[in-house]
Write a structure and sequence with these properties.
The complex is a heterodimer of chains A (about 160) and B (about 350).
Chain A lengths: L5 H13 L4 H9 L3 H15 L22 H13 L4 H12 L6 H26 L5 E3 L19
Helix pairs in contact in A: 1-2, 1-3, 2-3, 4-5, 4-6, 5-6
Chain B lengths: L13 H8 L7 E4 L3 H15 L8 E4 L1 H38 L5 H34 L12 H14 L6 H8 L5 H13 L3 H16 L6 H12 L4 H15 L6 H14 L7 H13 L12 H5 L8 H6 L2 H14 L1
Parallel strand pairs in B: 1-2
Classes of the chains: A mainly alpha (about 160), B mainly alpha (about 350).
Chain lengths: ~160, ~350
């Protein structure tokens, strides 16, 4: 049975859920109980506040949906955009297969599309960078290590 | 937030950085971490600019982001130590209780429990001292003081010097080193200078900055009278000259940067992608950079705008795919016409 005041109980639970370093220890010290007690109380508060389970909904019978069709340029756009967002060619291939089934492009085709788009991006960026540079007053600069064929050292890293 | 270059260079020497940075002939302020190559490159460029009376002054600011990140890392370690010691002390208490329950002589375990509690308490108090000292140093790195007054490097230096006294121990040496670096407060000097140009009247400048603080920070206040004063400062109608003054001050404050979190943001995207791609070529970096600069922010103060729009670049479209299909020569022509029109 919980004998603490509601306020202390809520504070104890808040210390756990806040996730801050030292929050539970600090609260344990303030409320004069152990850290384990505070964790137990947080679980109790969580259980109390959990909404009651609603009745199990009836099982839905999924009607077969018509398969969407994407035209060639849209598939290419999807693949290149996904690659530019950081998804690998094999992952893009798998994702497109979810939509198009076996008629989707394979990863080597996607890689070729991405390479063509990257070549075009270089030219477009040439024009855009020339327009951006005169606008720049503040610049945040940083280095990131991309790996390389030489052993890394302070002065020979690829940056 | 615009990624203006992303170069897969062979090294990170100062000369390599100079090549990149020299293109930015209107650059006034470069922010970075403590990387030596960047620091030397900015210093070399600044020196070259000093010899050219028409070139703008170039300053180098130390990134607040890395100082904060390091301090949080050390604080987290402090608190992990406290929690481990606290758990040990609680376990020692249990051992005492068990001994007493079993009728065994508990004096030995009680002494041991007392010692573990002393250690846990000492560590707890030390972590609290460190947290408070860091809080003070961190507050000194803000654009405003806690009461809404504009911060300045003199005040910040005093606050930091006092805070550093509380950041004791070898773990904090890196943070102390960052905080002692004079470049860390350059952004405050620059902000002050630009505000003086934007609004020469000192009184009006302070008031407009205070209004900006009220509108953007929403610092809670328990005093009802002060809440009323703040509401008036925030809501009162401005005359036309006052509005113009506020807009100028606001433009400077919005354009004052003290952290390279934008570049860290870009780095985190690239790091995530590095794990999925076998190699990261220059062509891939270009594609990703173009996509980044065209993507629309979904939340925050730049919501519904892409980095190119935030920079003020007027483009026929900001759509990544359409831009990619654009003829570069035609794009150059259009951008040049737009620039001349301005």
């Amino acid at each position: 049975m919980i004998t603490l005041s509601l306020r202390t109980l809520v504070r104890n639970a808040a210390a756990v859920f806040s996730g801050g370093y030292g929050a539970v220890t600090r609260q344990a010290r303030q409320s004069g109980c152990s850290r384990q007690t505070i964790y137990d109380q947080a679980r109790q508060v969580e259980r109390r506040l959990q909404p009651a389970d609603s009745a199990t909904p009836p099982v839905e019978v999924l009607a077969p949906t018509p398969q969407p069709s994407l035209d060639g340029p849209t598939v290419r756009r999807l693949a290149v955009t996904a690659f530019a967002m950081g998804i690998s060619t094999r992952q893009v291939e798998d994702l497109i297969r979810v939509i198009l089934g076996d008629s989707g492009p394979d990863h080597s085709t996607i890689a070729r599309w991405a390479a063509e788009a990257a070549g075009q991006a270089e030219l477009v960026l040439g024009a855009l960078d020339a327009a951006c540079i005169p606008e720049i007053r503040t610049l945040a600069v940083d280095e990131i290590f991309f790996g390389g064929d030489r052993p890394s050292s302070a002065s020979s890293r690829r940056a | 937030m615009t990624a203006v270059f992303c170069d897969a260079a062979a090294d990170r020497k100062a000369e390599t950085w100079v090549e990149q940075l020299a293109l930015f002939d209107r650059l006034e302020f470069a922010i970075s971490d403590a990387a030596q190559g960047i620091a030397k490159a900015v210093s070399d460029l600044a020196q070259a600019r000093r010899e050219d009376p028409e070139a703008p002054t170039l300053e180098h600011g130390l990134d607040v982001f890395h100082t904060t990140m390091e301090a949080r890392r050390v604080l987290a370690r402090d608190w992990r130590r406290v929690e481990a010691a606290w758990e040990k002390a609680e376990a020692a208490d249990l051992a005492v209780a068990r001994s007493r329950q079993q009728g065994i002589d508990a004096r030995g375990v009680a002494r041991s429990a007392q010692a573990t509690w002393s250690r846990a308490t000492a560590l707890f108090e030390q972590a609290e001292r460190h947290e408070a000292a860091w809080g003070r140093a961190h507050a000194a790195l803000d654009l405003f003081r806690a009461d809404g007054q504009l911060n300045d490097s003199g005040h910040a230096r005093v606050e930091i010097a006092e805070a550093i006294e509380g950041l004791t121990g070898a773990d904090w040496s890196k943070v102390r080193h960052f905080l002692n670096d004079a470049r860390g407060l350059k952004f405050l000097d620059r902000m002050r200078r630009r505000l003086e140009l934007a609004e020469p009247d000192a009184g009006r400048r302070e008031v407009m900055a205070w209004r900006w603080w009220l509108l953007h920070r929403r610092v809670p206040c328990s005093d009802p009278l002060m809440r009323l004063v703040r509401a008036v400062g925030r809501e009162c109608e401005l005359s036309e000259p006052e509005r113009a003054s506020y807009d100028r001050v606001s433009a400077v404050l919005q354009d004052t940067f003290r952290a390279s979190s934008a570049v860290e943001c870009m780095n985190s995207v690239l790091r995530m992608q590095q794990s999925r791609h076998k190699v990261m070529t220059q062509a891939m970096l270009d594609l990703k950079r173009l996509h980044w600069n065209c993507h629309e922010f979904r939340s925050g103060p730049r919501r519904k705008a892409c980095p190119y729009q935030v920079l003020g670049l007027k483009l026929p479209t900001y759509d990544f795919w359409i831009l990619l299909q654009t003829d570069p020569k035609e794009l150059t022509q259009r951008l040049s016409t737009a620039r001349n029109a301005v």
